[in-house]
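Final report, results section. Input specification for complex C-07:
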Amino acid sequence: MSATTLPFHAQLKREAGAEVVFRWLTIGSAALVLILLAGVMVALCDGGWPAIKTFQFAFLTREVWNPVTEQFGALAALYGTLITSLVAMLIAVPLSFGIAVFLTETCPLWLRGPIATCVELLAAVPSIVYGIWGLFVLAPILQHTVQPFLIDTLGDLPLLGKLFRGPPFGIGLFTAGIVLAVMVLPFITSVMREVFLATPRSLKEAAYGLGATQWEVIWDVVLPNSRAGVIGGIMLGLGRALGETMAVTFVVGNAHRISTSLLAPGTTISASIANEFTEAVGTLYTSSLIALGLLLFIITFTIIAAARLLLLQIERRGARI
Amino acid sequence: MSIRTRRIKASIALGASGVATAIGLAFLAAILWTLVARGFGGLSWTVFTQTTPAPGSSGGLLNAIYGSLMMTLLGVLIGGPIGILAATYLSEYGRTARLSTVIRFINDVLLSAPSIVIGLFVYTLVVVRMGHFSAIAGVVALGIIVIPVTVRTAEDMLRLIPQNMRHASAALGAQPWRTITSIIYPAARSGLLTGVLLALARVSGETAPLLFTALNNQFWNANLNQPIANLPVVIFQFATSPYPNWQSLAWAGALLITLFVLLLSVLARLISSRFGSRESRIE
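Structure output:
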């Protein structure tokens, strides 16, 4: 080793020099995380600027999406994004709650580990696999059984019926919502499970001591006590659903229009970008798509940041307990 | 409410939780079953020995498999070290610094940010500057996605190393960097490996950020400066095509990716559980 041949003070000096280099390397890498976020913001603003300048605020309020006349509005994609995520949440939240309750309360102890692992595997399945499965397996099932049933039973209701009218396409906003629900299920479940487990034992036992049933303990003690964490988990899932791309692109139908029926084809922000970006000709088309990306980033950033802040509070409180 | 109705209500609700779990597991089973049933049909040796075919003729996925492996490995090679260094700052130098709190928060947000946005970012950053799509742009996009995943797990793993190891090393006169590279990293080796494996699993299924960075290539290509074929984008293109032979290759590709990702997840889980048990023995 060459270090041993150096005089002692030179060795010390070298060590101290290396310390400075290494420390700055770690600081630089850590700062890169911040630079990345800022870079994404700046790059998207810059890329989307021609569209923002041309259409201004109307970009957000117009449904039109016409590459030929170069008229672009984000409303249809924004509507599709929000509706598919809403459908996903309506399905995924009760299911996740049920699974979390099952895994923390009902399930026999020896089965908890394996089932929790299986639910986590749902999160490991790549989104493109959800897409291809949704298109070839789920969509035909929906088209031939579920959607005709919905149209026949709910389609005639006043108000609500509007959501379930029109022909059963198989693909569309409703199908995308179901696929998204399955995809975000593991994320919401794992957060709910963790916050349920963090409920102080003494609280639960006190409730049992007062004669509460197991369900009353869950609904009236565990759930209120972990409310912030549950909301945080739901918002985290919502953030995922809003930004999910490939699975949605396969099944949403890719039509830039707003229809009242959930069964109709639509599009989402991410699906529009994925489908059209490489084929977009002209500055305005490309920059409109980048502006859509900026819109998506701002929405998901806000929701994920709020979710993380809520979860951070839980962690702090957990530390105090 | 009488105790009877309350008990009935409890059984119904808890029964419903079991049903919810069954539904969740049924989805997993359905997806895996379809993959195996349709994917195995398309799997044959030609999948690994031939490049992607034109519609109607036979072929395989060789160029896509090569492109995917190369881009994910390079992406992890770039993003992994940066992530570990950033985690080193958060865990060792700036554990209590206010900057660290901000970085942790932003990192968690980036972790859940839509990957298609990263694709757009790299498009404006690399593709527009270079003037064409390329494997390099794909590698950069995957590398950026690797960073937050690695930072998160690596910091958790470094924090598991007991403080007295740091103190012992410092008492022997070691500078912090020496303590970190000679004591902390070796002690956390399997934990850090877990983090990198999880990051690898995360990016090997990523499609959206590759769509307009690496694009796709029908032919064999090993030049990083050119567009390159990769499994996710090939699956996307082939699955949405009307040609039966393309669709069956898409299923085979989907099966390959899923097996690879699930294998990595299981491996990471095994390593980390061994790491965890060893840690508890030290303490």
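Chain A touches chain B through 92 residues (CB under 8 Å). The mean pLDDT of chain A is 88. This concludes the modelling results for the funded period.
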